Amino acid sequence: MLDAITGWLLDLFKRVFVALWSFVQDAFILLLDLLLSAIVAVLGAIPVPVQLSAGLGSLWSALDPAIIHFLTLFGLPQALALVGAAFVFRLGRKIVTLFQW
Fold first, then answer.
1. pLDDT score of 47
2. How many distinct structural domains can be found in the chain?
3. Are residues 95 and 78 in the same domain?
4. Half-sphere exposure of residue 14: CA atoms within 13 angstroms, side-chain side
5. Domain encompassing residue 4
6. How far apart are CA 38 and CA 42, in angstroms?
């Protein structure tokens, strides 16, 4: 009889502990969701600069021709193309593996 009562109390304690742990996890997830939503709202409220509203092409064409020449000699267009290709490859890899990798 005493074993049954202590077993029941132990089981009750375990269930209460699991319930409290689940509550703490849910509270943490809720706070993280609120924090990330606030960050998204703040970033969404930042206006796009006027210089970038027409795209990077307008900034590139507004540069002095000598600067454009040196940037081309340094390989900036090829570097930007390589970064873009790497980004497309990474997104493609994630889509093919169903976001598991």
1. 87
2. 2
3. yes
4. 6
5. 1-46
6. 6
- Taking the C-alpha atoms of residue 62 and residue 52, their distance in angstroms, rounded to an integer, is 12
Name the token pair of 48: 């796009």
Residues 42, 59 share a domain = no
Contact between 69 and 62 (Cβ < 8 Å): no
One digit per residue, pLDDT tens: the chain, 101 residues? Answer: 888 889 999 999 999 999 999 999 999 999 999 999 999 999 889 887 776 677 777 777 888 989 989 999 999 989 999 999 999 999 889 888 887 76
Per the rule left: phi > 0, alpha: psi between -120 and 50, beta: everything else, 49 is: beta
Rounded CA gap, 33 and 25, in Å?
12
Is residue 11 located within the same domain as residue 33?
A: yes
Residues 42 and 5 in one domain: yes
Instruction: Report helix, strand or coil for 19.
Output: helix
For residue 10, give Cα distances in angstroms to 4, 7, 17, 54, 60.
Answer: 10, 5, 10, 67, 71
Tell me if the pTM is above 0.70: no
